[in-house]
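Give me the 3D structure for 8-oxo-dGTP diphosphatase.
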Amino acid sequence: MPVWMPVVAIALVDAEGRVLLQQRPARKHHGGLWEFPGGKIDAGETPRDALAREIAEELAIQVKPCDCAALLLAEEAREGQPPVVLMLYRATCWRGSPDGREGQTWGWFTREEARGLALAPMDRELVERISD
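Predicted structure for 8-oxo-dGTP diphosphatase (132 residues):
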């Protein structure tokens, strides 16, 4: 049994090189901060399968697991809880248009625009490390 929580996120990159970010609901950890879309990996899922499921559930976008390329890792230690290890993937093709199914705000941002947002800590680290 792992002593850390694996989560996945995606950097969807459009034809203009912008990434899709969403704003976390106020009631959640890091509420109101911006992040790459994604979520927890369920038992029996691969990271890519979990990512495809989470993106479909949250944003009504269909991404094929085989179109998701592993990109970066980030970690966050949380008091009294297992550390979170975030696996960021990148994809440039998908079907559908974003629709915040959990009521979240979303938008397409250049790296410079993303730097100006109130980002969740791991996502800030990833935005800084992601290549243009």
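The beta strands are 5-12, 19-23, 34-35, 38-40, 69-78, 81-91, 106-109. Let me know if you want a second pass.
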